[in-house]
Amino acid sequence: MFVEGYYQDATNSMTAVADPVNNPAVGDTVDVKLASTVAPYSIIYSDRKVVGTNGMINCQFPLAVLNNNYYIIVRHRNTLETWSKNPVPFNTANKSFDLTAP
């Protein structure tokens, strides 16, 4: 997940904004939440992670997410909260989700 304002075309990476001197591979932090697919769409799980300058994060959620569907919500301190368009099935222990995919 590249935060657009920190994206550098020349290097295809993010600027290390958290602490560029001591942690040059750390882009910033984001909150990733899983919300219920049923109104009022309550937050079920949440994880705060560091975004690497490569735009990748690895979240960890309990095994209870397996075989359930959730909306994925991404929150960054300086951007609009973003929700997945549709509920995402968590049908494997390792799940990838690309926010740039249509």
Task: Report the sheet with the most strands, covering strand number, pairing sense and barrel closure.
Answer: 5 strands, antiparallel
Q: Please provide the count of β strands.
A: 7
Residues in β-strands, percent: 35-45%
- Approximate shape: elongated
- Cα end-to-end separation: 14 Å
Structural class: mainly beta
Low-confidence stretches: none
Task: Walk me through this protein's architecture.
- The protein is mostly beta strands and 102 residues long.
- It has one domain (4-90).
- It has no helices and 7 strands.
- The chain has strands spanning 7-8, 13-14, 26-35, 43-52, 68-75, 82-83, 88-90.
- Strands 3, 4, 5, 6 and 7 form a 5-stranded antiparallel sheet that branches. A two-stranded antiparallel ribbon has the order 1-2.
- Strand 1 and strand 2 (13-14) form a beta hairpin.
How does the SSE layout of this entry go?
Layout: E1 7-8, E2 13-14, E3 26-35, E4 43-52, E5 68-75, E6 82-83, E7 88-90
Antiparallel strand pairs: 1-2, 3-4, 3-5, 5-6, 5-7
Give short descriptive properties of this protein.
102 residues; 0% helix; two-stranded antiparallel ribbon; mainly beta; single chain; 5-stranded antiparallel beta sheet
Q: What would you say about this model in short?
A:
Helix content is 0%, strand content 36%.
